[in-house]
Design brief:
The structure holds two protein chains of two kinds. Chain A is built from two helices and six strands; from the N terminus they run αβαβββββ. Chain A has one domain: hypothetical protein PF0899 fold (2-Layer Sandwich). A three-stranded mixed sheet of chain A has the order 2-1-6, covered by helices on one side. In chain A, strands 4-3-5 form a three-stranded antiparallel sheet, with no helix packed on it. Chain A is α+β, with helices and mostly antiparallel strands. Chain B is of the alpha/beta class. In chain B, 29% of the residues lie in helices and 21% in strands. A seven-stranded parallel sheet of chain B has the order 6-5-7-4-8-9-10, sandwiched between helices. In chain B, strands 1-2 form a two-stranded antiparallel ribbon. Classes of the chains: A alpha+beta, B alpha/beta. Strand 6 of chain A pairs antiparallel with strand 3 of chain B.
């Protein structure tokens, strides 16, 4: 349940970047290796944003699969659902993770101008 | 609504249906006041604040020359028992401080008392039902309760959990995990982030090997699939087997 404390960090960033404007959607990019459960994140966001200016906004998750690049042969391989960090071409284990560790807020979608503007 | 619209060449102009009188009107930049909602690019890492605090912790450790190990495991794997044995062996040679993360209670901290180590307890039970991990600000909050300048080594006993603690850099220099053979051989594949994040895996409770069907070769294969660089040590915190090698590993960090 680290989604809960993560939502606290998200709220801090969104509050600062929204600068008082009403937020509709928070677009978050989550790598496979981040162990974030999207449903849990959405649920925790409801808890954390309730009774704040961010209440009613929702988190939209863009999922990024984990991939490694072999240092020996250069092949890029999907790590897979049952993770194996071995090169799909040569079987070597000397590889770098090239995607799947992302965890960032990419953008905010603001609500249209209301009477408050 | 809809008085302004933007053409593909970027020009914006006002329709004059609501301004039939033809008075001058600024039809230029109305960004931030679009009627259909606006997208704001952010591109900010969610762990930035934690990682900044972790860097500050690391700088504080470096300033006094203390080395820090983040010890992680699932609940019941034997972290606290191993720490007791570790403190007993290092007493009088290495000045050790302990940061003890626990959701509630001081039970673990109590078990570690009496070995000359300074212990700072962090109860993570505040808020929504307790945190499942230590993060960098929590560790930072414990630092004033340790005489860092008089220590050689700080061992952080993280909250028992194979998922969340792996995500949080707390400013440590090395990560080790305690894995007990009662947990089965497949866990590296189920919790790859935790197993990948550690330099050392202490396979604990090896005194039970004769009684359990633990497949050590299968475990090593699974670990290799997710973290081929991990060092493995076989230990029994209960009998003391292998604990000296672990203590040598700790001394080598100093």
């Amino acid at each position: 349940m680290h989604e809960l404390s993560i939502c606290g960090s998200i709220a801090d960033i969104v509050t600062r970047r929204a600068a008082g404007r009403a937020v509709k959607v928070i677009n978050v990019r989550v790598g496979q290796l981040r162990q974030i459960v999207p449903d849990t994140l959405a649920y925790c966001w409801e808890l954390v944003s309730a009774d704040t200016p961010l209440a009613g906004s929702r988190i939209s998750v863009e999922f990024v699969p984990a991939r490694i690049k072999c240092r020996s042969c250069g092949q890029v391989t999907d790590v897979g659902a049952v993770p194996v960090f071995a090169c799909g071409a040569c079987g070597g284990f000397n590889a770098d993770v090239v995607s799947g560790e992302e965890f960032l807020i990419t953008s905010l979608e603001l609500a249209g101008e209301g009477a408050s503007a | 609504m809809g008085r302004f619209h933007r053409h593909e060449d970027g020009t914006v102009h006002a329709h004059d249906d609501e301004h039939a009188g033809g008075h001058a009107h600024d039809a230029g930049d109305h960004s931030g006041y679009a009627t259909g909602g606006e997208r704001v690019e952010v591109l900010e890492r969610i762990f930035d604040e934690n990682d900044r605090t972790a860097a500050a912790n690391r700088a504080e450790f470096a300033a006094v020359g203390v080395r820090v190990v983040n010890l992680m495991s699932s609940p019941g794997a034997g972290k606290t028992t191993l720490l007791r044995e570790t403190l007993a062996r290092l007493a009088g040679q290495v000045r050790v401080g302990i940061i003890e993360g626990d959701i509630e209670t001081s039970l673990d901290a109590d078990r570690l008392a009496g070995f000359g180590a300074r212990i700072a307890l962090i109860n993570t039970g505040d808020g929504f039902g307790g945190e499942c991990h230590l993060d960098a600000p929590m560790v930072r909050s414990a630092l004033p309760r340790l005489p860092l300048a008089d220590l050689d080594l700080v061992l952080i006993e993280n909250v028992g959990n194979l998922v969340c603690p792996a995500e949080f850099d707390v400013g440590e220099h090395a990560r080790a995990m305690v894995y007990s053979i009662t947990e089965g051989e497949e866990k590296p594949l189920k919790y790859p982030v935790m197993f990948r994040s550690c330099e050392l895996v202490l396979v604990n409770k090896v005194d039970l090997l004769p009684y359990l069907g633990f497949d050590m070769d299968g475990f090593r294969d699974n670990l290799r699939k997710v973290n081929p660089a991990a060092e493995v040590m076989l230990v029994s915190a209960r009998t003391g087997e292998g604990v000296d090698a672990w203590c040598d590993w700790l001394r080598a960090l100093l």
